[in-house]
Structure formats: C-alpha cells, structure tokens
User: Fold this.
Amino acid sequence: MGKALSLLRAFAPTGGPIGVVELARRCGMPKSTAHRLLAVLAEQGVVERWDGRWRLGITMFELGSLAGVGPNSRVQQIALPYLHELAAATGHTVHLGVLDQGEVLYLSKIFGHRRMPTPTRVGGRMPAYATGLGKVLLAYADPGEVGSILAGRLRPLTPSTVASEKALQAALAQARDSRIAWDQQECIPGLVCAAAPVTDRAGRAVAAISVSGPPGMAWRTHLASRVCAAATAISDRLGPAEPSVQTGSAGGPASPSRTERLRASTANGSASRNYPISDGPDQLV
Assistant:
C-alpha cells in the first residue's frame, strides 16, 4: 500500500503523463515494481496509459472530489460568489487558501481579465512565508505553532523573499494589526499580492483570500480595500462552525451592512518542499 501511494504522489504536480522509468526514479523503486503497481492501479481506473506513458485516471478525480466535503468545502461554497465578484472588479487573479503544515494549500483560483502569471494551481502548495495568503494565516496562528512551522523553512524564492525569522515575525505582527498581508514580489518577480483573513465567530482565521496585481503604490491601496471588504463579507456569512457539514450548504443569510460595504468598495475602490515557479506547462497563468 505504501509503495502504491508513493507512486501516486510521484505524479505531482502535473498528474502526468510520465514514463514508468521516471516514476520509478522519483519513488526510488525498481522499474519492474513500478510497472507491476501501475498495472494493478490501472485495473481500478486510478491510472491509465496515454501515448506510451502514464497519467492519473478518472477514479482519482472522483476520489479527489470527495476530499472537499467538510469545513473547507463550506468555506469554498460561501466564498465563491465573492471570489468571482472580486476577480471581476479587479480584473486580476483571486485565490482562496488554507494553512497546512507550514504551507498554503490552494482551494480556489479565479482568473480575471487582466490576469498576471501566478505559480499556483488548485490543490497545489506554496511556502506560507513567501505568500500573502500564508503570511496572513500565520499571523493568526498560535505563536508556538508558527515557530515550529517555520524552523528551517525560510528558503528564498526570489531576491525579495523575507527569509529571516525576525523580519517575518515583524511582517506577521503588522498583518495582525492591519488584517492584511503582502507578498511583495516574494513568490515570483513582478507580482504583488494582498491577502486578508476569513475568520469564524471566535476570530480564528479558517482561510484567507488574496488578489494578485502589478507593483505600485496606487495599485496597493486599490487592492487592499477590495480584498479586505470581500474577506469581511465572507467571514460574516461563515458564522459559527457546524459539527456536521451538509454538501451543498450555502451558509446563512448575508449581513446587509457588510454586503453593502463590499459593493460600495468594489464600485469605487476607496479605503485605505521544492517549489517550482510553474507547476506545469499551463500552470503559470
């Protein structure tokens, strides 16, 4: 079982197609073992042959869809209309993500008409310390947990990456005070992201949203007001956590005052592992 799971993980980040020799190399197992396991997995539709190589099959899609049922699924369902509205208002890419073992796990990615290259994909990960989403989530995490998460993980991705624990702690303190965190070309050159927390009634950050755009002070102000308004509206609709989440739940009614503020903001924009640059040929979008 362990070898089969290792083989499936070797398909990341693109899902294939990948040759059996490369899969065996990534897993550190003999080619004959990899070939035998692939044949067994293919019988169940977990993988399939394509042009002489292997890729993940339809069964993986079906099983992966089930993994979204739970608290994260509820956050996605509530957030989705606001993510689309935010992407339409700014014209740029919008993300929804959660913190998982010191990394940002991307739950949703919505493209705008003026989108810029972003090294992300739904289901993909990036180091939390180098992203706006990650920093605002770390800002709301338990301080002891943050220290253990960041130990030995501050590898620069660009010359602008905050790679010292002292500087990062200062950035997290600022994010707690302002409820917004910035990625200042720290993940990829030429890309700035503003992120704000999605909180529950206890004030815990259960997720975060971000908008990406070009560098520039005018853009920063424009970006910050919109992302904060959207995050606040999502938080208001999220309400208290439910012990049992029903698939298809859309949450409670929106708070009129928060919704009005969101729409006013979008109308005028006022208010103050080894991480590759691309997860595949069509992921840097």
